[in-house]
């Protein structure tokens, strides 16, 4: 997701480099944000149960309110609104005018980071009680406190990643039954795409926005590559420094170190791809990436949200386990004599399959847009 958030910021800088009507542009941004948020609510709210479950439906009182698309919509909203309303109208003809044009955006990003860090180290988090049959659970994370207060316990993600740890699963590092001596917090809900962490994730969009500004205002390829490389390494190095200072590299909390390291890596990836495609003109090896980018929404809904695999699994022989999806994955595992390597090959084949599907949709001029 950090790479996608970064690219969203780059795209915003290109789409909004000339805004003829700020109110009209604001209206379009708000509408797109709402549509993206609602789509995420439908896809990841719990209505679709994914692979290995042929049922569907969700108790509205327990629908998950946050998710990947919801987080992207929040980052898109903040970055787009700042691009519309917080950019000076001066012409960029030097590094100094570049700073003057966008310094308010940098200040907003800095304030977001400061607000997050202050809550991370300054907010008092009392013990909280989560009741399930015969068990009382206690949690202590401040991000969870914010989500529980604003969203409610029943609207959070019910299968957090820590349920795959040795303390919480006999099948660790996979999900599984609880060990006999498991701590109470193993069953506590936690949303990795919660409110506060999504606010921090929006900073990734802001950083992508600045990389897009370099693309817009600096026309020389080598100049762009040099600036992107320098900024990427600075951001990447800052992330490692923050980690050494005690801020952990943690995706579920979207910590400052995680944001900097992933944003720096995203900047380097953009630099490398730009060099290959736009400088050296090696376009054919990256065509599949282009096709998938043109129809990212369709691929995400059908593949990442398991809509297509779940539909295929509806056709089975004898029992639901005997279906084409699970059968293909099991075949690779048997061929490679390894469950892990077989699953890896299955995922790679799945990615190639969806790349070809995206290429077919592109050849027919079929695209999904919000």
From TrEMBL:
Residues of the signal peptide: 1-21
Protein name as annotated: Heparan-alpha-glucosaminide N-acetyltransferase catalytic domain-containing protein
Residue stretches spanning the membrane: 72-91, 103-124, 195-216, 228-249, 255-277, 297-316, 341-361
Keywords: Membrane, Signal, Transmembrane, Transmembrane helix
């Amino acid at each position: 997701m950090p790479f996608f958030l970064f690219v969203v910021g780059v795209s915003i800088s290109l789409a909004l480099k000339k805004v003829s009507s700020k109110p009209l542009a604001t209206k379009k941004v708000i509408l797109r944000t709402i549509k993206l948020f609602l789509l995420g609510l439908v896809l990841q709210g719990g209505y679709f149960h994914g692979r290995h479950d042929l049922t569907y439906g969700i108790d509205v009182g327990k629908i998950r309110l946050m998710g990947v698309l919801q987080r992207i919509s929040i980052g898109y909203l903040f970055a787009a609104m700042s691009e519309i309303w917080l950019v000076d109208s001066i012409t960029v003809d030097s590094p100094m005018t570049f700073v003057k044009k966008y310094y308010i955006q940098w200040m907003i990003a800095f304030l977001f980071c400061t607000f997050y860090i202050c809550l991370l180290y300054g907010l008092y988090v009392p013990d909280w009680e989560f009741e399930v049959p015969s068990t009382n659970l206690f949690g202590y994370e401040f991000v969870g406190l914010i989500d529980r207060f604003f969203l409610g316990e029943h609207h959070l993600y019910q299968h957090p990643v820590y349920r795959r740890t040795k303390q919480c699963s006999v099948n660790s590092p996979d999900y599984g039954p609880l060990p006999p001596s498991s701590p109470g917090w193993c069953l506590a809900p936690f949303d990795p795409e919660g409110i506060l962490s999504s606010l921090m994730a929006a900073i990734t969009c802001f950083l992508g926005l600045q990389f897009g500004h370099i693309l817009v205002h600096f026309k020389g390829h080598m100049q762009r590559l040099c600036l992107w490389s320098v900024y990427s390494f600075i951001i990447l190095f800052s992330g490692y420094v923050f980690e050494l200072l005690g801020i952990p590299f943690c995706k579920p909390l979207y910590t400052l170190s995680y944001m900097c390291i992933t944003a720096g890596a995203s900047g380097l990836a953009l630099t490398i791809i730009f060099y290959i495609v736009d400088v050296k003109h090696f376009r054919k090896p990256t065509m599949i990436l282009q096709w998938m980018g043109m129809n990212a929404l369709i691929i995400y809904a059908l593949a990442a949200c398991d809509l297509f695999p779940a539909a295929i699994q509806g056709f089975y022989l004898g029992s639901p386990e005997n279906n084409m999806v699970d059968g293909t994955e099991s075949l690779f595992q048997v061929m490679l004599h390894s469950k892990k390597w077989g699953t890896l090959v299955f995922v790679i084949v799945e990615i190639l399959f969806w790349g070809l599907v995206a290429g077919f949709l592109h050849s027919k001029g079929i695209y999904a847009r919000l």
